[in-house]
């Protein structure tokens, strides 16, 4: 989950698609999904929903399970049928209120999974999202790198302030 | 005495709402601009964090809206967020998420200098002078907007991993800590089930995770000051983004659905011979406390970790101090509960107070009928 796809592994595995598409501009994803729907038949396997999910964690001290709180969740599961009759199922579960976005990403998921028409654009959007993820990663990396403590300087002299 | 209908209440209440909005705009001559949610979310990020954790819902935009709507009242903003969440359907419960995968922006330990991966201070006020920065009063937009890009440009080029090992794992490998539980009980849902004492640790952790920061700090502080026995060392305090993994609707494979900013803290407390397994013949070990919350809120996470350790002792041996009493702690740290109770005293109590006055008059009449003269309270000027 923390292993971002490298150039060599492009396109990334399906399990990373939603992470990248979610980082791309939402309107681009919804526009592309609408364009796909013009060429293909899109139907809902389950109705798109939005609501909440309980976030469950094991506490890292003693390993007891507890709920930290709730997160917004939207969910979509669609079937896309291409003009040549190829059928593909796609789905999305996002920490986001927008079920329209979840449905759009589910359409992209189905399109890319079986290389349906316009899957190239879905791949391009994946690349856009990956760049956004990498930018965010670089920003966090910068925070860590800038604030890393160098204790070796303290150890050189006799002024250690260890307790 | 019965209830008395009055005229004009609704009009006054409508007027109060309008007055509130007028003051939010700063009055007729303020010329202030409405706050954008984006500005609140980022420039008041610690406040937004607090509202999310106390509201029990990770939703930065709605937390920012609640802050705006409630004009900065943290208790009311948390209340609004909880009210919102109560209107939404529950779609799922996530699989257990591993906080070892947090993408960190801050990581410190007061137990060891050299922790695997190193210590990174991240964004913190810890080392800043608490002196007013008057230049912020007249901040120019241009340099403000460039701040982030300048920071990035000047940052040292160093490739760091996304996640880091836990400090506790090193101690655990030396068998200085209690082992992790192998069999875990189901997590307790405080949003659906009432707290009936004795409660599980899972219920206590969930209650504290959405408790009011100041309330938790106050009770934890009582323990630190002497009404308790914890002398904690922060094994690790970390702030970062937890990737939330949910099953893909088609493949079932765990897929990242988004990420959640959170703060997590583990404290180590000194063992005591009669306070650990050593009393039962096992080797003495350190004891642990755990705290976590949505957003970046270190005071809350540390307070929670201290209270968790105190409550473990109270649950096991019986409470010797208020901070070790699960009922005392867990029933008094919820901001919505306590704020609601305190503020309900502002509501009309005309009938009950009339009854109080009647009883006082009646008692006085009985005194007089018995020939006793109640001693009048004297007031010195």
TrEMBL record, chain A:
GO terms for biological process: organic phosphonate metabolic process; organic phosphonate transport. It holds the Pfam family PhnG. This is Alpha-D-ribose 1-methylphosphonate 5-triphosphate synthase subunit PhnG. It comes from Marinobacter persicus.
Automatic annotation (TrEMBL), chain B:
Pfam families: PhnI. It comes from the Bacteria. One of its GO terms (biological process) is organic phosphonate metabolic process. This is Alpha-D-ribose 1-methylphosphonate 5-triphosphate synthase subunit PhnI. It comes from Marinobacter persicus.
